[in-house]
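User: quick one, sequence for these tokens?
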């Protein structure tokens, strides 16, 4: 049957529409699939809990089967997330798996050293145990002579002992109750709402020894009280003992999984509300993923308890390091031995073989691929061909390099030095002895003899120190520069006085020790005149004031530190001492001794006499008053004597004046 043109056109349009519809359908389905499989940016679960992960999985359209949970001992709080296999911000799709590691709390088998608690209080001791997560501690109290209440007495085990965190520890504390003291009583509370820490704290605070034990229970919630040996409300004496039983949760019969798979163990753990820590170790006998050991492996475990499994990681994988260096393989082996709880325990055996390969190259390795833990890995290492290098001192450098090449060696570190015996460009010294082919050889090349261009530095008037400093390198190559000190009226100290003599590599110089000056005599001159004379002579002056001198006027030089006519270097300091001049005098006041008879009391006489002497320039400290008692005689008050006599005579300023007063009974 032939179709009309119109029919053909309609069929063609229908086909185009059908194709477009199909394309749109495919595009829609692709879009749905793309949206369905769109990745989500991974959240940061550090420090969060299991339920937070499950909520995120659900909210982002993923399946709970994509996340696995495991436990590991950690100092973080129990059930807090400590690790996640997909980092924060990384994409996560429906084809990915997220592994979450939660903390099962501190490792109860970790060993810790007990400290010495001597002198510490109950509060300080309990805090240390809490901070270090040792919970199986019992506190008991005793009368301890000489130890203050609530202070440490003894401990079992003793201080410095290594214990597991889970070991039982008994701490004895002082009750502070003496034999003749009235014993205190306390009322025992209902511990139903108390935590273990609260119970221990109550016992410590009230000096009651409380032994805490755990017991599985299908009726009492985990960590809640099952029983207490002393009923709530009972009064007991301080220093008494009691016990408390706490629920460890429902008792679960432990199933042994040694020889079974980790997946089987994990399924049982999940079904029974337990926690598991899986430690991977290499094994030469158990297939990867097989449980090797379990703790505990029998008995009853409390609800939420941690079961530790040691799981086989199979044989140790060993890469082929043939063609690489021995150092690289040793580093690789050290890294392997640190992995999987340091269970590889691989050892290295090295066999050296002479070869054209570079020294240290691994020629063969056995085994390759895998090895049982504790295996010995044997590698064959190239030492290179052995050649002997001779001393080639005096050989031209180009010839020496050709010599090294002929032995299969390479030039190493090249240094240069001066030599009086080896021509410039020739070898002074080189490494010698047995070498491996491909080794480098160090050598030293001569720069020829060292030439010291001293020029005009050796002439008179030049600085000897400048010459000596300039000769530093020359002196390292056999030159010597010496001097002889000479007096000179012409050159300052340190200046060469005549051209130095040169003989071979020796330079000898005469050097001024400085201008020499004859010291003039300045005694008897005024200090200013003396200073001028000494300075004009090229000397330095230091002036010192001396004592009073009644025979010399003030400022007259009485002595000089360097004797006249002495020969000294220019610039020498001469100290001159000059007189203060005649010593000053004070005039004794004129005092009528009888003036004070019976007219004044002792204190009045002392006050008036002090004022009289102060007006003449004397100080009160110079007045030495002495009292004579006249009460058995005349009862007269008055001045008996003054020494020196108060007659206007001149006395030195520091003179002590002795005044004797007569004082009667009315004084």
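Assistant:
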């Amino acid at each position: 049957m032939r179709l009309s043109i119109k029919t053909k056109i309609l069929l063609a349009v229908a086909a185009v529409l059908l194709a477009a519809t199909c394309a749109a359908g495919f595009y829609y389905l692709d879009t749905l699939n793309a949206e369905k499989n769109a990745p989500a940016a991974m959240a940061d679960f550090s420090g969060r809990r299991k339920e937070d992960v499950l909520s995120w999985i659900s909210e982002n359209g993923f399946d709970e089967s994509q996340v696995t949970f495991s436990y590991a001992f950690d100092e973080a709080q129990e059930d807090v997330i400590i690790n996640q296999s997909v980092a924060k911000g990384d994409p996560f799709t429906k084809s990915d798996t997220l592994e979450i590691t939660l903390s099962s709390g501190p490792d109860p088998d970790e060993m810790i050293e007990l400290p010495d608690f001597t002198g510490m209080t109950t509060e300080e001791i309990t805090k240390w145990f809490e901070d270090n997560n040792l919970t199986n501690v019992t506190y008991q109290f005793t009368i301890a002579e000489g130890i203050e209440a609530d202070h440490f007495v003894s401990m079992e085990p003793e201080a410095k002992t290594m214990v597991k965190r889970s070991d039982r520890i008994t701490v004895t504390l002082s009750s502070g109750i003496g034999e003749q003291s009235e014993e205190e009583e306390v009322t025992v509370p209902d511990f139903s709402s108390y935590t273990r820490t609260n119970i221990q704290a109550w016992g410590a605070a009230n000096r009651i020894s409380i032994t805490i034990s755990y017991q599985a229970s299908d009726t009492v919630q985990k960590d809640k009280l099952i029983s207490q040996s002393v009923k709530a409300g009972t009064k007991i004496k301080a220093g008494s003992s009691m016990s408390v039983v706490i629920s460890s949760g429902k008792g679960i019969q432990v199933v042994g999984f040694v020889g079974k798979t980790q997946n089987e163990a994990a399924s049982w753990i999940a079904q029974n509300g337990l926690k598991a820590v899986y430690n991977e170790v290499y094994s030469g006998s158990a297939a990867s993923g097989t449980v090797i050991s379990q703790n505990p492996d029998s008995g009853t475990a409390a609800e939420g308890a941690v079961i530790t499994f040691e799981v086989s990681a199979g044989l140790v994988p060993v890469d082929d390091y043939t063609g690489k260096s021995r150092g690289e393989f040793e580093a690789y082996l050290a890294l392997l031995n640190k992995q999987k709880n340091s269970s590889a325990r691989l050892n290295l055996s090295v066999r050296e073989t002479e070869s054209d390969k570079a020294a240290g190259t691994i020629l063969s390795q056995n085994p390759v691929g895998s090895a049982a833990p504790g295996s010995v890995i044997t590698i064959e290492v190239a030492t290179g061909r052995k050649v002997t290098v001779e001393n080639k001192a005096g050989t031209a450098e180009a010839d020496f390099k050709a010599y090294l090449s002929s032995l299969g060696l390479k030039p190493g570190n090249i240094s240069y030095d001066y030599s009086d015996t080896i021509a410039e460009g020739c070898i002074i010294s080189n490494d010698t002895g047995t070498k491996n082919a491909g080794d480098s050889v160090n050598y030293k090349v001569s720069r020829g003899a060292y030439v010291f261009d001293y020029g005009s530095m050796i002439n008179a008037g030049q600085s000897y120190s400048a010459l000596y400093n300039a000769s530093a390198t020359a002196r390292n190559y056999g030159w010597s520069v010496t001097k002889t000190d000479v007096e000179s009226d012409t050159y300052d100290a340190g200046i060469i006085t005549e051209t130095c003599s040169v003989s071979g590599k020796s330079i000898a110089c005469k050097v001024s020790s400085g201008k020499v000056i004859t010291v003039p005599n300045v005694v008897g001159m005024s200090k200013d005149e003396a200073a001028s004379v000494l300075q004009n002579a090229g000397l330095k002056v230091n002036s010192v004031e001396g004592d009073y001198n009644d025979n010399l006027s003030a400022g007259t030089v009485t002595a000089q530190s360097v004797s006249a006519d002495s020969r000294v270097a220019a610039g020498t300091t001469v100290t001159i001492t000059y007189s203060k001049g005649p010593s000053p005098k004070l005039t004794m006041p004129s005092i009528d001794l009888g003036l004070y008879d019976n007219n004044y009391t002792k204190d009045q006489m002392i006050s008036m006499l002090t004022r009289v002497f102060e007006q003449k320039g004397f100080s009160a400290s110079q007045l030495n008053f002495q009292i004579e008692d006249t009460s058995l005689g005349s009862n007269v008050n008055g001045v008996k004597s003054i020494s020196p006599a108060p007659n206007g005579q001149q006395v030195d300023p520091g003179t002590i004046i002795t005044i004797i007063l007569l004082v009667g009974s009315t004084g």
